Amino acid sequence: MENSYQSPLQTPGSQSPLPNATAALVLGIIGILGCFCYGIPGMICAIIALVLANKDIRLYNANPSYYTPGSFANVKAGRICAIIALSLSCLYIICAIIIIAMFGFAILSNPQEIINQLR
Is the pTM here over 0.85, yes or no? Predict the structure, then answer.
C-alpha cells in the first residue's frame, strides 16, 4: 500500500529539500574542525549532526519522491563528516587522557626529583 500523505506546503509533482540536510552537513564540517579544540566541541557537533542526519534519512526512505536527491546527498555527506568528526574527537580525548595520566604518574612516582629539576 502506497503512502498518499502529502505535506500541506507541497504541490503535486514538486520536490522539496530535506529539512535538516544543510544543518547536518554544516555541523559535520564544524565537528571536524572542532575536534582539534580538545575534542569536546567536535564531539557535540558530531552527535547533533548524526541525530539530524539519521532523522532525515528515515524521512527520505519513507517518501523518496517528495525530496530532492541533492538534499539527500547533503545528508549522506553530513553523516560521513559527523562519523569522521566523532572518531577524531574520541581519539583526541583518549590521547589527552593518556598523556595526562602519564605525566601524573611520573610526578607522583618521584616528586622530589621533579621539584629539583624545576629549580
Answer: no
